[in-house]
From TrEMBL:
Originating organism: Belnapia rosea
Highest taxon, organism lineage: Bacteria
Protein name (Swiss-Prot/TrEMBL): Predicted flavoprotein CzcO associated with the cation diffusion facilitator CzcD
Stored InterPro entries: FAD-binding_Monooxygenases, FAD/NAD-bd_sf, Flavin_mOase-like
GO terms assigned for molecular function: flavin adenine dinucleotide binding; N,N-dimethylaniline monooxygenase activity; NADP binding
One protein family per Pfam: FMO-like
């Protein structure tokens, strides 16, 4: 193994604490943070609600779940040996393969000995007197540590729709993020899918292959683009493994850490013919190029956005045979790319099948779930299976579900009542020694690239504190204010922030989240890293270290 590991030599026992650090979550960020904290010699415990590692890829087992980042740009990059001993089978890997990969990582670095599974965190309270955190699990057990590190993900708190009668249904039903491990057989079954976001799109195109009849309840259509996935050939595999340094260098350079970045031209700097040819090229290319590799003004100029929206609408009309159904699938309340863009494989063709029905649940709202199915304002439908592809309480939702209290008993949910306020998305004013790996206001995009940077930044901070004999770190109020103002300024002029979506903090299924907020950092990943690097390079002046 290329990485050296250090046996725990932390100061937890001398301080009367159980651990030096507690990490919440054993997904990609929690696993990597465990590796790095071990290298510091710290005594670490990871608490994971599931029965295995994987986070997102453990919980989301629904049919069709897969990457929309290129596989070889998504995995960990920290160990050259790991890069060479794992081979991705497809350009966009399916969930089962990704989970196998993460279990391989857990085996390779012997991570499970420091992870407690089936351990859901109920509360975490900062103790002013001891400068430590007390973490209580749902089973009532209590654990103390100097540092609390949250690795709970931006899309990890599933939400069900606020519809009466959900518990009355006598058939089978699941939220996509709580899918049964044994899988589901749809053959000959009457199936309903509620929701047509990214998860719904992936689920629908798979379920339609075998279901006896599929009814899709769509409230808001989303723009989608083809994924163009295919197997990786042996020659491509050799090229990928030889090119990893260049692949990850490219990810470091781009706006959102994908292999794609915006075209330097404006939409109207080229002729109509050139523009159409460019759109066709992007539409025929794999991955997120049509979203993050489009003309530079696509998400800031209304006229430019209308051009690509009109192009995408024409594609839907070409692919869906029934003109009425095609129009139902074309968004009218937001432009192309202003919400998270689902990537699909023959999704639109599903609606050409005689066993598939699309229901507009805005025109004919769902009134209730009945024991035998779903009743709308216009009709009653009977089903054997109901699938809730209704998404997540994003960005802050996983934090809201834990009773998190900082100094003087300050509740995090109250501190964020008017919208999240953070320092670089990794720290919160009034919550000493709490570090967030994927908190609101961190750079998102190709998530593992953000994860590795944030984990390494947190690790460097803790190494600095070790060297100086420091036991407490807190964000200065003026630093939180400056970063939050910067996040707000990055959102100015973006069409994305004029649209209701999880990226603007809106979730109609969650109380108190009906008003748009700047819920995510909209600047570039290189700019985010530059800010964080400047803080570290300047000796952490923005933090109170003692």
């Amino acid at each position: 193994m290329a990485l050296s590991m250090t046996e725990p030599t932390g100061t937890a026992s001398q301080a009367g604490l159980d651990h030096d650090a507690i990490v919440i979550g054993a997904g990609m960020s929690g696993m990597y943070q465990l590796i790095r904290l071990r290298q510091l010699g710290l005594r670490v415990r990871v608490f994971e609600a599931g029965t295995g590692v994987g986070g997102t890829w453990y919980w989301n087992r629904y049919p069709g779940a897969r990457f929309d980042s290129e596989s070889y740009s998504y995995g960990y990059s920290f160990d050259p040996e790991l890069l060479q001993d794992w081979s991705w089978s497809e350009h966009f890997a399916p969930q089962p393969e990704t989970l196998r990969y993460l279990n391989h990582v857990a085996d390779k670095y012997d991570l499970r000995r420091d992870i407690q599974f089936e351990a859901r965190v109920a509360s975490a309270h900062y103790q002013d007197a001891t400068r430590s955190w007390t973490v209580t699990l749902e089973d009532g057990s209590r654990h103390s540590s100097r540092f609390l590190i949250t690795a709970i993900g931006v899309l990890s708190a599933p939400t069900l729709p606020r519809i009466e009668g959900i518990d009355s249904f006598q058939g089978q039903s699941w939220h996509t993020a709580r899918w049964p491990k044994e899988g589901v057989d749809f053959t000959g079954k009457r199936v309903a899918v509620i929701g047509t976001g990214a998860t719904g799109v992936q689920t629908i195109q798979e379920v339609a292959k075998t279901a006896g009849h599929l009814t899709v309840f769509q409230r808001t259509p989303n723009w989608c683009a083809p994924l163009h996935n295919r197997p990786i050939t042996e020659e491509e595999q050799r090229q990928i493994k030889a090119s990893y340094p260049e692949i990850f260098r490219r990810c470091q350079e781009t706006f959102s850490c994908f292999l794609h970045t915006a075209d330097p031209r404006g939409t109207f700097e080229v002729t109509k013919e050139e523009r159409e040819a460019f759109y066709e090229q992007l539409y025929a290319s794999p991955g997120f190029g049509i979203w993050v590799g489009n003309f530079k003004d696509m998400l800031t100029d209304r006229a430019a956005n209308k051009e690509i929206s009109d192009f995408a609408a024409r594609k839907i009309r070409e692919r869906v045979k029934d003109p009425k159904v095609a129009e139902m699938l074309i968004p009218t309340n937001h432009g192309f790319g202003t919400r998270r863009l689902p990537l699909e494989t023959r999704y639109y063709e599903v609606y050409n099948q005689p066993n598939v029905l699309l229901v507009d649940s805005k025109a004919t709202p769902i009134e209730r779930i009945t024991p035998t199915g779903i009743r709308t304002s216009a009709a009653e439908y009977e089903f054997d299976i109901i699938i809730y592809a209704t998404g997540f309480d994003a960005l802050t939702g996983a934090f809201d579900r834990i009773d998190l209290r900082g100094a003087d008993g300050l509740r995090l949910k109250e501190a964020w009542a008017g919208g999240a306020r953070t320092f670089m998305g990794m720290m919160v004013e009034g919550f000493p020694n709490m570090l967030m790996l994927l908190g609101p206001h961190t750079a998102l995009g190709n998530i593992p690239r953000s994860i590795e940077y944030n984990v390494d930044w947190v690790t460097a901070l803790l190494r600095h504190m070790q060297a100086k004999g420091l036991t407490r770190v807190a964000a200065r109020p003026e630093a939180v204010r400056a970063w939050t103002e910067h996040v707000m300024s990055c959102a100015e002029g973006l069409l994305t922030f004029e649209v209701d979506s999880w990226m603007t903090g809106v979730n109609r299924n969650v109380e108190g989240k009906q008003t748009r907020t700047v819920a995510r950092y909209a600047g570039s990943a290189p700019a985010y890293r530059a800010w964080c690097d400047e803080v570290a390079g300047g000796g952490y002046r923005e933090l109170v270290l003692d």
